[in-house]
Amino acid sequence: SIPLGYFGGIGLASKNGILFKGSNFLDVMTKVNAVVMDKTGTLTKGVFEVQKVVGNNFEEKELVLLAAAIESKSTHPIALAIVRYAGDVLNGLKIENVEEVSGHGLKGIINGKTVLAGNTKLLQKHGITYDSAIDNEADTIVALAVEGSYAGYITIADEIKEDAKQAIADMHGLNILTVMLSGDKQSVVDKVAGLLGIDQAFGNLLPEDKVSRTAALKKEGKHIAFVGDGVNDAPVVALADAGIAMGGLGSDATIETADIVIQNDQPSKIVTAIKIGKLTRNIVW
Ligand code: ADP
Ligand code: MG
Questions:
Q1: In the annotation, is 88 catalytic?
Q2: Quick check: 101 and 118 in contact, CB under 8 A?
Q3: Separation CA 116–CA 105 (nearest Å)
Q4: Ligand 1 atom with least separation from CA of 210
Q5: What are the tens digits of pLDDT across the range 118-154?
Q6: How far is the CA of 282 from the centre of ligand 2 (A)?
Q7: CATH 3.40.50.1000 segments of the chain
Q8: Contact at 8 Å (CB) between 18 and 261?
Q9: CATH 3.40.1110.10 domain extents, the chain
Q10: What CATH number does the domain located at 49-157 have?
Q11: Count of CA atoms in the C-beta half-sphere (13 A) of 206
């Protein structure tokens, strides 16, 4: 039989907007000594805003139009920002064969022309040379290519969640190692990690790199809680001792795979979940 304390723990968690999918995860949370987190949507709001548009042999307006056309087929937070910025311009455009290249961006055909929109890794993958100014941008960038030629870039920025810094400090107070894994560029990752005081931060990661980094920590004997929101995060959520999904912004796949769901997306709830686990253990034993 399951001790009463577990029901109390799950109930208390649920009152705090934290959904435990099994009472065993209350125990797992008490043992966590490394919290591994995605950046976008987990520590940052995941609501990007376009900052700047830089065309290369393309008018700004034309570049934004092409970017919005291809991004209209994606639900990535980056895509939503660009489509919102472009406004009501997509009528009459022929948008075909848009594919999401995981960790890179998008490829598709707009009005008969092949368009790429993504990070510099995507351009490199297609052998497209680009303006080095891109590498000097501190913000997240979406680079564009049309018919195999570099066409310019758009910079976008995100905001850190209000309670993220305190949540990281509280984790450190519990002797927990904090790690951030992101597909975003290293300069953006370093900036966020610095502002939050995160112990280790790795950028430019593909979904499979997030898995191997997490597996390496596990091999070192770490008890890992992984927190993510994106569809690409589902494999790491599955691998971690406790897989946690941000429920508000999260993709269905990640929420489905998760052991614990944080309904209001606040990073401080990770700490709350650990504390409720510990409280429950004290009642059970
Ligand atoms: P993360 O959530 O850690 O940023 P993702 O795997 O979702 O990781 O994305 C990694 C990177 O791939 C993004 O930072 C971006 O550079 C690029 N990318 C992914 N999807 C898109 C998209 N729809 N449009 C442009 N770039 C994208
Ligand atoms: Mg993500």
A1: no
A2: yes
A3: 8
A4: 3
A5: 999 999 999 999 999 999 998 999 999 999 999 999 9
A6: 35
A7: 4-45+161-284
A8: yes
A9: 49-157
A10: 3.40.1110.10
A11: 7
pLDDT in tens, 145-177: 999 999 999 999 999 999 999 999 999 999 999
Pocket around ligand 1 at a 6 A CB cut-off: 38-40, 71, 74, 76, 78-79, 103-106, 117-119, 140, 142, 182-184, 207, 230, 232
ipTM of the complex: 0.96
Taking phi over 0 as left and psi of -120 to 50 as alpha, with beta for the rest, 87 belongs to left
Joined tokens for residue 125: 């993958």
Please state the length of the chain: 285
Pocket residue to mutate for ligand 1, from 42, 50, 119, 213, most atoms within 8 A of Cβ: 119
CA of 240 to the centre of ligand 1 (A): 22
Q: What homologous superfamily does CATH list for 4-45+161-284?
A: HAD superfamily/HAD-like (3.40.50.1000)
